[in-house]
Design a protein that fits this description.
This protein is an all-beta fold. The chain has strands at 3-7, 10-12, 18-25, 34-39, 46-51, 58-60, 68-73, 78-83, 92-99, 111-114, 118-122. The protein contains no helices and eleven strands.
Length: 124
């Protein structure tokens, strides 16, 4: 049974940082790209970042480039999203996703499984 369990969300002031974690189980993490998506109230879910199975390739949405960093530790079966210089517009529920391929190309259309989400609120 595939499970993706996110943690690390919370309330943070603008300019602050958070690190999200996603622990994967029920499949061989090493074979797959992994990604983070987010959905703000009243908006569609959007891709934020993706990391290939080999870690050689990463992708970032323009809105987070230079502020967010995706990484993975296959030995711990965990994917991370380090979020720095957070802005109010980063407020959303963040979802971890397994990508049905080793690469990030077109990753938003290749999602296999979703986590349950973790809330991030950026507010003073």
């Amino acid at each position: 049974q595939v499970q993706l369990v996110e943690s690390g969300g919370g309330l943070v002031q603008p300019g602050g940082s958070l690190r999200l974690s996603c622990v994967a189980s029920g499949f061989t993490l090493d074979y797959y790209a992994m990604a983070w998506f987010r959905q703000a109230p009243g908006k569609e879910r959007e891709g934020v970042s993706c990391i290939s199975s080999s870690e050689r390739t990463t992708y970032y949405a323009d809105s987070v480039k230079g502020r967010f960093t995706i990484s993975r530790d296959n030995s711990k079966r965990t994917v991370y999203l380090q979020m720095n210089r957070l802005k109010p517009e980063d407020t959303a529920t963040y979802y971890c996703a397994n990508i049905k391929w080793a690469q990030c190309h077109d990753y938003a259309s290749r999602v296999g499984f979703w986590g349950q989400g973790t809330q991030v609120t950026v507010s003073s």
